[in-house]
Design a protein that fits this description.
single chain; mainly alpha; two-stranded antiparallel sheet; about 5% strand; disulfide bond; protein-disulfide reductase activity; redox-active center; flavoprotein; ERO1-like_sf
């Protein structure tokens, strides 16, 4: 579509009194690759889950996220970081972070671990057999353990231990429009879609409105993929859609010397999602958002046994508050589990065991690569939320791929359980789903604004 025609369409849509965005007319009914419909998700999220989740994410345990925003891009040279003032991230000073969060993490999340440590010390005093390890053997065991843990990860998680990492208060650094756009942003998403979504270069992803032949070829290729690779693409597309909704909902509407005003930009939303302005791509992106919601919701329901363990703590150093906050978390996970039409992950990886094992590893490595690309984002605030949301989705995938280990938590007698989540993974998992939940809620707001003709 020519630029002049696109501009005219935008102007026409702006002048339509009470006309609804065409994306909403197509955003209804049953979701692809699932048995759920959009209306059921909207009602469940907006009435039952969203309010409780917002309360949880304001708590200290979930609002402080440790991140290294100075890691170099591993794939290409980033000429300069975003110079826009709204791209800046304000890290926390040490006294702003609760001591229980900023102190070393070993053993503090598990009362059972502390009991085991005390038991070990007791047996030493009782003349137990000397089973100490040489330094060389100890180092080898640590390396093996680290390798085993990393083999289950979908994201790079070295930020938590990096000396260059700092705590950031997510409430004081909200995700919103920063002005960061242009070729560099396109390069980030193009690298994700073209190099990490199993797509051959000969099949072009529909980007330019009016490219009907390319779109037809692309979706023909996508439908021909196995359900796992198709689901992977839809997760990435859903995450992309969610981020664009956030930027449209918290857009810089006014910037003067005495105030800044952030709010909903209906025109920006239409440009990204209206079917007429996106050659019918917008509604597909929104449907992928709902698919992402279902997958992350399913992960929250599946991981409930991990958080139900008596030894698990949301540790901030304030025991009474920590227990109350754990109870709120468990309530939210119970609500997630009560959803009537969950995504059925058993449809994934149901073939030959060797083939499915290879496919799982291919998907894990592809998503691991996407998490590395987040260090190529030039805007610090965009990098912060990009890293958090990719880690959150990666953690959700880790949960769905670890069903047996999670089921064994209540029956295993092993002191070193095979499934565990770090605080970093827990914070990213809940905040990432909080972003998706917010996106679904914002669609209701945009629908109302469009119906009002604003």
């Amino acid at each position: 579509m020519k630029p002049v025609v696109s501009l005219l369409l935008i102007l026409v849509l702006q002048l339509r009194g009470s006309a609804d965005c065409l994306c909403f007319r197509e955003l209804t009914g049953r979701q692809d690759d699932s048995t759920c419909d959009v209306e059921t998700i909207d009602d469940f999220n907006n009435k039952q889950l969203f309010p409780k989740l917002q309360t949880l994410l304001e708590l200290d345990y979930f609002r402080f996220y440790k991140v290294n925003l100075n890691k170099p891009c591993p794939f290409w040279t980033v000429s300069s970081h975003c110079g826009l003032k709204d791209c800046a991230v304000q890290p926390c000073s040490p006294n702003q972070v609760p001591e229980g969060i900023r102190s070393p993490s070993h053993n503090k999340y598990s009362g059972k671990a502390n009991e085991q440590l005390a038991e070990c010390e007791k047996t030493q005093h009782l003349g137990a057999v000397d089973v100490s390890l040489s330094e060389e053997t100890r180092e080898a065991l640590l390396n093996w353990s680290k390798h085993d843990d990393e083999a289950k990860l979908f994201c790079v998680v070295d930020d938590e231990e990096s000396p260059d990492s700092q705590f950031v208060d997510l409430l004081l650094n909200p995700e919103r429009f920063t002005g960061y756009r242009g070729p560099e942003v396109w390069r980030i998403w193009n690298s994700i879609y073209e190099e990490n979504c199993f797509k051959p270069y000969s099949v072009k992803r529909p980007l330019i409105p009016g490219a009907g032949v390319e779109a037809k070829k692309f979706y023909s290729w996508l439908e021909g993929q196995c359900v796992e690779k198709r689901a992977f693409y839809r997760l990435v597309s859903g995450l992309h859609a969610s981020i664009n909704i956030h930027l449209s909902a918290r857009y810089l509407l006014e910037d003067s010397w005495f105030q800044k005003k952030w709010g909903h930009n209906v025109t920006e939303f239409r440009q990204r999602f209206d079917s007429e302005l996106t050659a019918n791509e917008g509604p597909k992106r929104l449907r992928n958002l709902y698919f992402l919601y279902l997958v992350e919701l399913r992960a929250l329901a599946k991981v409930l046994p991990f958080f139900q363990q008596p030894s698990f703590r949301l540790y901030t150093g304030r025991p009474e508050e920590d227990q109350k906050h754990k109870e709120l978390l468990l309530q939210i996970l119970q609500v997630a589990r009560s959803f009537p039409l969950h995504f059925d992950e058993t449809s994934l990886f149901a073939g030959d065991e060797n083939e499915t094992a290879k496919l799982k590893e291919d998907i894990r490595l592809a998503f691991l690569n996407i998490s590395r690309i987040m260090d190529c984002v030039g805007c610090f605030k965009c990098r912060l939320w990009g890293k958090l949301q990719t880690q959150g989705l990666g953690t959700a995938l880790k949960i769905l791929f670890s069903e047996r280990e999670i089921e064994a938590l209540h029956t295993s007698n092993d002191r070193r359980q095979s499934f565990k989540l770090s605080r970093q993974e827990i914070v990213s998992l809940l905040n990432a789903f909080g972003r998706i939940s917010t996106s679904v809620r914002e669609l209701t707001n945009f629908r109302s604004l469009l119906n009002e003709g604003k």
